[in-house]
Design goal:
single chain; 268 residues; alpha/beta; eight-stranded mixed sheet; two-stranded antiparallel sheet; binds iron/sulfur cluster; binds magnesium ion
Length: 268
């Protein structure tokens, strides 16, 4: 919550992880504008429905284009934009409920086409906007408004899913680490193919996971998040599988396919 922008800060609850993602996205877009010398109008933000979807209205300063679309349909909208204007930088902002539940069926086909977009997925393991129902990434046993006796399903390992269905560039981040997140979003935009930056973005209202992610030595809580070693070969898919199978929340670029043609080159 800032004094500077009171007119729109009320859209998210205090401490919501999405604030950090917003700052990182702003930094990444600013950097891209400087590096490419392209105007801001060459950037399009495509949002789904959910608290994360508010991102499209909240970027500070000069605005990129924004489309606030339908629940789960960020990828088809992004594909439409890229088919008409392959020169534009298209960034998707979506939540875990949006991208990985109703929207999940779109991930594999776009991975196979290698749609040249960067999807920033804000994962808080609940549907925050509709008051905290469990989402695919919620832990088994989590008590929410839709699972009053605890969630019965295992939680989805989203990183494993992306890797398995062939997403070409996969990064994993935490919303509170803004600088590395900004760099990962920048790298995802720069990559010529389908990039997903999966961000742990806690919902302070319905599923506050900051302590689990960062750990708390005083309470004996080990951090879930861990840094991917610098010597990890991101072009090696077997090494990428090892990382996502290790559990916890790896931080950094997990996988980057080499020499895969993006969709715009397939139709040219
Ligand atoms: Fe953020 Fe949760 Fe509030 Fe939505 S409900 S704005 S995800 S803290
Ligand atoms: Mg969510």
């Amino acid at each position: 919550m800032t004094q500077k922008n009171p007119e729109y800060d009320f859209k998210w609850c205090p401490g919501c992880g999405d604030f950090g993602v917003r700052r990182a996205l702003e930094q990444a877009v600013e950097k891209r504008i400087i590096e490419t010398e392209e105007p801001i109008e060459n950037n399009v933000i495509v949002a789904g429905i959910g608290c994360s979807g508010n991102m499209v209205h909240l970027l500070e300063g000069p605005q990129p284009f924004g489309i606030h679309g339908l629940h789960g349909r960020t990828l088809p909208i992004a594909m439409g934009i890229k088919m008409g204007r392959p020169d534009l930088n298209v960034v998707i902002v979506a939540g875990d409920g949006d991208f990985l539940s109703i929207g999940m069926e779109h991930i594999a086909p776009q991975a196979q086409r290698n749609l040249n977009v960067c999807a920033v997925v804000m994962d808080n393991a609940v549907y925050g906007l509709t008051k905290g129902q469990s989402s695919p990434t919620a832990d088994e046993g989590l008590v929410t408004t839709s699972t009053p006796y605890g969630k019965m399903q295992d939680s989805l390992n989203a990183l494993q899913l992306y890797l398995t269905v062939g997403v070409a560039h996969i990064a994993s981040a935490m919303s509170s680490q803004i600088k590395p997140l900004a760099q990962m979003i920048y790298d995802g935009m720069d990559y010529p193919g389908f990039a997903v930056v999966h961000v742990q973005s806690p919902c302070t209202e319905y599923n506050d996971t900051y302590e689990q992610l960062k750990g708390n030595p005083k309470k004996g809580i080990e951090p879930l998040a861990w840094q991917i070693p610098e010597d990890h070969d991101r072009t090696n898919i077997a090494a990428a599988h090892d990382i996502v199978n290790k559990g916890g929340v790896p931080l950094g670029i997990i996988y980057q396919a080499e020499h895969r043609k993006p969709l715009d080159k397939r139709i040219a």
